[in-house]
Amino acid sequence: MNFRVKQCLLGASLAVFSMVASAPASAQSNDYDIVPDSWIFVMQSDVNTMYLEGDVKKAMSKGKAKGKLKHVYKSRIKGFSVDGMSTKDAKIMADTMDGVAYVVPNSYMQIMGTKNFSTAGKPAIGNQTVPWGVARVNGGQYKGNGIAWVVDTGVDARHPDLRVHKGKSKSIIDSSRGMTDGQGHGTHVAGIIGAKDDGTGVVGVAPGVTIASVKVLDDNGKGTADNIIAGLDYAASRARSGDVINLSLGGGFNQAVNDAVLRASASATVVVAAGNYRGDARNYSPGSTEGDNVLTVSAINSSDVFSSSSNFGNPPIDCAAPGVEIMSTLPGNTYGSFTGTSMAAPHVAGLVLKGNISFDGVAANDPDGNNDPICVF
Ligand SMILES: [Ca+2]
Ligand SMILES: [Ca+2]
Ligand SMILES: [Ca+2]
Q1: Of 78, 107, 136, which closes a domain?
Q2: What is the domain extent for residue 306?
Q3: Boundary-marking domain end, from 107, 136, 158
Q4: What CATH number does residue 48 fall under?
């Protein structure tokens, strides 16, 4: 956690603060990360959320704060987001409303994986391939009935190598494509976790597991913290112990995102990508989240060498997993490879579903000098 942000939270429970002012110079929390005039309010954990929507609107009229209520978070996560509200009015809101723990600016986040265009879009040819990452973590053979909640760009539900539960899937964002994945990243992540062991295409770490797609990022792989929190709130309200929630995305440090991950982890284990900024993972969200039921994952290549783009630092990183040139499912019944900590996290999500994680070897050349253990079954 960012020390100065923490001080601010403890010092004044109703303080409005800016990540621009609070973040250290080395962090990515620069101006371009902030969504203008958009705020995330986090309520104290004992607040009754039944009347939260009405309370927000009442506070807006009472305090003369102008803005548009966007999301209300009322399951594990308690809070709300607003658009079109000035910094001055956000302060008024925080002062007028009872039970506000803190407010932070909304911020942009994105996928933590890069498509290799020379391999993407290939149909499956011949027999099933076991991707190197699945072999490295001893994946395969899943008999449980857990669900993998993939909070991402969507998942192609028609891909024959995936088992997607449409009824449990949901899009948080307005999208002309509806539930489907226009980017490819979410479909790729889903295949790493659970592509079927059916003799064709690829196989995942927990083959054939039910995938629930929670779409929070657009066709460019980009999104905002308040939508990601809404996706987490949705997944946490339905996930059970034995499920896993995967977050292969990231951006600058955002306390509200980290707290949402922490609160969601009361429902099921949350696995998060460390981030691809070649920096200290403590400066990025959600990778910096620390909790007993939260796993932060860095990336290695097929020689167990730490990926040059992966964030580092223990804490918050718990282990490393395969994340370079990973072959998996892509939309339209095709396959291709991606690189990033986005690919490392779902390997560990698959292990969580299988129910047993151990370590085998370490990531060589880890920049923090403390070589991350490699998670395997
Ligand atoms: Ca397969
Ligand atoms: Ca950790
Ligand atoms: Ca390390």
Answers
A1: 107
A2: 111-376
A3: 107
A4: 3.30.70.80
Q: Which residue in 33, 89, 152, 226 is the catalytic one? A: 152
For 206, list phi and psi in degrees, rounded to 5: -120, 80
Average pLDDT over residues 249-272: 97
Q: How far is the CA of 309 from the centre of ligand 1 (A)?
A: 29
Per-residue pLDDT reduced to its tens digit, 40-88: 999 998 998 899 999 999 988 887 899 999 999 998 899 999 999 999 9
Q: How far is the CA of 162 from the centre of ligand 1 (A)?
A: 8
Q: For residue 198, is pLDDT > 90?
A: yes
**Ligand (nearest to CA of 315):** 2
What distance in angstroms lies between residue 325's CA and the mean position of ligand 2's atoms?
25
Q: How far is CA 304 from the centre of its chain?
A: 24
* C-alpha 108 – ligand 3 centre gap (Å): 26
The 3-class SS string of the chain reads: CCHHHHHHHHHCCCCECCHHHHCCCCCCCCHHHEEEEEEEEEECCCCCHHHHHHHHHHHHHHHCCCCEEEEEEECCCEEEEEECCCHHHHHHHHHHCCCEEEEEEEEEEEECCEECCCCCCECCCCCCECCHHHHHCCCCCCCCCCEEEEEECCCCCCCCCCEECHHHCEECCCCCCCCCCCCCHHHHHHHHHHCCCCCCCECCCCCCCEEEEEECCCCCCEEEHHHHHHHHHHHHHHCCECEEEEECEEEECCHHHHHHHHHHCCCCEEEEECCCCCCEHHHEECCCCCCCCEEEEEEECCCCEECCCCCECCCCEEEEEECCCEEEEECCCEEEEEECHHHHHHHHHHHHHHCCCEEEEECECCCCCCCCEEEEC
Tens-digit pLDDT profile for residues 215-225: 999 999 999 99
71 is known as an active-site residue: no
State how many domains the chain has.
2
CATH of the domain at 324: 3.40.50.200
Q: Tell me: do 27 and 158 sit in the same domain.
A: no
